[in-house]
Design goal:
This is DUF2236 domain-containing protein. InterPro entries: MPAB, MPAB/Lcp_cat_dom. It holds the Pfam family MPAB_Lcp_cat. The chain is mainly α. The chain has helices at residues 8-13, 22-33, 35-49, 53-62, 64-67, 69-86, 91-104, 111-132, 139-155, 165-179, 184-198, 206-215, 219-225, 232-249, 284-290. The chain has one domain (8-268).
């Protein structure tokens, strides 16, 4: 496809309504325009939630990240990806949302914590793309991401969702300032998460990659995890590498096939999976007894 068509999807999105068409816009962004960037930004958004003691203590107590970290990572990606690919109100997307709600009902999660996680899913991808994306997001795209996750939040029963993009962003920032601080549970869950990332690579490269992971984290995150602050040259290397990747992609032709996380190979499920496989290992029998789930 000629490079002149690189911005065709952006031009199409600019004709859509960010409120009425938010699911369609987000589908295009996550599947075609920025699949890798959004996936990485959501990884960062989830890792930021582990800087909050009330969240990390719950995860630390369940032991899921310590004993089944890769499965926990894959399950989150598969649920989110189903909702983004198919929509959250019908078919597989609705089934994924219902599965997520069933899982969450077994844990005492505070509404404020739900709100923060939801806000991270909106603003971390936007911030990442603004720094490293091959093009900036337009206002319609940012608003569509806000309306998408607000609608998902409503389906989850989350209360008091801020009524504007700016107010929710301010909530996100205020929450981090108030609740990011060190505790031992943060450190344990954070280390288990770093181990997930490292085990994607051969053992010989892991000592080199560990400090580069730290270099991607904000100082507030490093403090909350009790991790050392990386030298400036490592931060600069990581940042410049990601920016250069975005610059190169701007010269690539537009993606012809979608790249949703759901459609990739998953380490936890080499032989494939269904929604009946998704969830904490010790809870699967109960979850599947409560309600049969739609398979993949």
């Amino acid at each position: 496809m000629p490079l002149t068509q690189r911005f065709n999807r952006l031009e199409f999105i600019q004709q859509l309504d960010p409120i009425q068409d938010h699911a369609q816009i987000y589908h295009i962004l996550a599947g075609y325009e920025f699949p890798w960037d959004i996936n990485k930004a959501l990884e960062l958004a989830l890792m930021k939630t582990f800087c909050v003691p009330s969240i990390s203590k719950l995860l630390d107590k369940t032991g899921e990240f310590h004993h089944h970290g890769q499965k926990r990572y894959d399950d989150t990606g598969l649920i989110v990806s189903r909702m983004v690919k198919y929509g959250y109100l019908v078919g597989q997307g609705k089934a994924a949302l219902e599965r997520m709600n069933k899982i969450h009902q077994h844990f005492p999660i505070k509404n404020d914590d739900y709100l923060y996680v939801l806000s991270g899913f909106i603003y971390e991808p936007i911030r990442w793309i603004e720094r490293f994306g091959w093009r900036p997001l337009c206002e319609r795209e940012k608003l569509a991401m806000y309306y998408f996750w607000c609608a998902v939040g409503q389906e989850m029963g989350i209360k008091d969702i801020p009524e504007s993009y700016a107010l929710f962003e301010q909530y996100n920032q205020n929450y981090e300032q108030q609740y990011f601080y060190y505790c031992d549970a943060n450190a344990r869950v954070g280390e288990s998460t770093v181990q997930i990332f490292l085990h994607w690579f051969p053992a010989m490269f892991r000592p080199i990659l560990r400090p580069l992971i730290y270099a991607m984290l904000e100082e507030s995150m490093l403090e909350a995890f009790g991790l050392p602050s990386p030298p400036a040259y490592q931060r600069s290397f990581v940042s410049n590498t990601l920016k250069f990747r975005g610059y190169l992609l701007s010269y690539f032709p537009p993606r012809q096939r979608p790249d949703f996380y759901l459609d990739r190979q998953h380490l936890s499920y080499p032989g494939g999976h269904s929604l009946k496989d998704v969830g904490p290992v010790g809870m699967l029998e109960e979850l599947n007894r409560e309600r049969p789930e739609q398979s993949n």
